[in-house]
Amino acid sequence: MQSGCAASSNTGACSFETGSEAGRNLLGPPLGCDGGCGTARPAAGRPVSADELVGRVEAHVRRHQLIEPGDDVVCLVSGGADSTCLYHVLAELGYRVSALHVDHGLRGAESDEDATWCEARLGAEVVQAAARCSTEAELRDVRYSFRTDALRATGHTLSDQVETILFRLAASGSTKGIKVRREDGVVRPLLCLWREEAEAYCRERGLAWRTDSSNPGTVRGLIRNEVLPLLERIHPAARENVLRVIEERRTLPPALAELLDTPAASRRVDLGGGVQAVREHDRLWLEQGPIDLLGAVEWGPWRIESGLQGLKVRGWRPGDRLAGRKKKVQDVFVDAKIPRSDREGWPLVVRGSEVVAVPGIIEAKGVTATRVGD
Q1: Within a 10 A sphere around the Cβ of 366, how many other Cβ atoms?
Q2: Which residues of 279-306 are buried (b: 16+ CB within 10 A; e: fewer)?
Q3: Which of 187, 214, 248 is the last residue of a domain?
Q4: What's the chain's average pLDDT?
Q5: Which residues form the domain of 287?
């Protein structure tokens, strides 16, 4: 999460620009975007002050109920611009802020300097965690294993969100993004700012930060420095458009997801509200649940009426047979030349498990069916 700043040295130290006009001009009015991403990338135009950025974070925290007013929160800090911004913004908002820095010792003297920096500038508790992990995911798990008794926050920004989506899309075909709140309770209050906004906040407030010299050599660095610039050559709003993936993605109801994953060739599940999902081999359709035929029932383009007792209207199911006969309803559809795509939504009048009538094809005494429209 550590980001570069205006001037850096080989040791990883960063200087700052107090009230830098260049830093402030990176900012502009936010474009609408919510549902975990908070705010879209600012367009060029009216500069956004640090105070306005603080207000945006406050609105994001309240919208997602991340931190209760005046609560204690432990910021997991690296010394980079993002976590430095996180620490100071939350302090400005009146939260009781403390900091934790986990030192994996991966970069020798530079790691030591990061730890010293965080302790001196942010009052961070420094935890030594020797790197015995082979992947970034394992290192992250180690970092998240500390202070589980407290509410913890990280400095992930919208820039991290975009990079994560692109990585997961390329590596596994998944478009899952960073969650506003992890299952273990870790929250992301800055998922409403872009990285350059966090840096501009630090500049305006006169805050220095560290930079990780190993970032360019990571996969995230490759996406940040090479992939994203190429995408923005294709379209200048590439970053915002990547975020739309998580805005527009819909989560399947658990029952429907289970139906899609099951190896069974034929199965149905109740989705609630009188709707069932039916899977038959490689076909899937939604079906209205059985409805008592009390007087009249509207089913798609059909109006079905009867004064008989004990009748219901439902959709066709594989294996259905006509009452008192061996003939399958599927064969009735074939003989009547009903397209396969129409059969799933065709109503049947049933008594128990027996099919009494197939509207428009098989009539039954005491039951009338009229096609009123398509």
Answers
A1: 13
A2: beeeeeeebbbebebeeebebbebbbeb
A3: 248
A4: 81
A5: 254-371
Number of domains in the chain: 2
Residues 58 and 92: their CA atoms lie apart, in Å, by 10
Residue 210 and residue 81: Cα distance in Å, rounded? 7
Specify the DSSP class assigned to residue 217. G
Core vs surface per residue 73-91: b (16+ CB within 10 A) or e: bbbbbbbbbbbbbbbbbbe
Q: Is the pTM of this model over 0.85?
A: no
Residues 34-54 have a mean pLDDT of 59
Residue 185 pLDDT > 70, yes or no?
yes
CA nearest to 180, candidates 270, 67, 77, 91 = 67
Tokens of 106: 């991966």
Between CA 309 and CA 366 the distance in angstroms is 10
Q: How many CB atoms lie within 10 A of CB 357?
A: 25
Q: Considering the domain boundaries, does residue 1 fall inside one?
A: no
Tell me what pLDDT residue 349 has: 93
- State which amino acid sits at residue 99: A
Supply 191's token pair.
């998922």
- Residue 37 and residue 100 in one domain: yes
Position 130 scores a pLDDT of 65
Domain assignment present for 4: no
**pLDDT level of residue 5 (50, 70, 90 thresholds):** very low
Strand order in the sheet with 72-76: 125-128, 96-103, 72-76, 152-153
Distance CA 39, CA 177 (A): 15
Q: Which one is predicted more confidently, 104 or 336?
A: 336
